[in-house]
Amino acid sequence: MDAAARPLAIITGGSSGIGLAVAGLLARKGCRVALVARDSARLAAAAERLAASGAGGVMTRQADVADGAAVTAAIESLIAEGGPPLWLVTAAGIVEPGFFLDQDLARTEAQLAVNVMGTAGAVRAAVPAMVAAGRGRVVLVSSGAGLFGIAGYGGYCASKFAVRGLAEVLRVELAGTGVSVTLAVPSDTDTPQLAYEAERRPTAIAPFAGAGPVLAAEAVARHMVAAAERGRFLSAPGLRLGVLAWLQDFISARTAALQIRLLRRADRR
Fold first, then answer.
1. Residues 4/57, Cβ–Cβ less than 8 Å
2. pTM for this model (two decimals)
């Protein structure tokens, strides 16, 4: 299939880690992948790696997702070139471990800017075209740290809880549009971000924060893509995290269903 005819998949944070693993998987599934990231050298290397594995027509845009105007311009240009996306995966994220009262507030602001506003900006830029096309899959990458608080990760947990909240709202607001929403809450994953975090996590909390198994980025990518393809809201790889995520979603799924019914009744009027 000609590259231009392939369905478009936009991945923020697509130059490394989970984002790059998702890009490789979606390329093998026949998508034309578009990577958005802030580091031009990593973007070029990621595009070369994908091309070497057989992906054709890889597109890249350099943009810091914390810059709302830049990420909007990047995604709008991708849509102008590749058409309405079939996939939007928001994998861009940062972490700055440290006890909340010991850290400069700027570190919390940076995590909120990238993890929350970067996600929100990408959704706002891409999803209207998906709704207009009547189809698409949105995958928001949160974290196991978006399910419960972890000492030493105040800014990170706050940001990932916010991503989870946005996903819960979007699954209500996008119901019936043909655009599905999946929330990914992976545990520790073998990525450059984990390597950065592990060197900086407070020693006192390390036996808890680093207690679980480290997942391969490819395994996390397969889980979230499979969940999205099945129309599932949650992707929580691993038994313990999966059970915890399901328990937390037990009530929110029902509140979502109630809101969807109310909105549909209002539309009928």
1. yes
2. 0.92
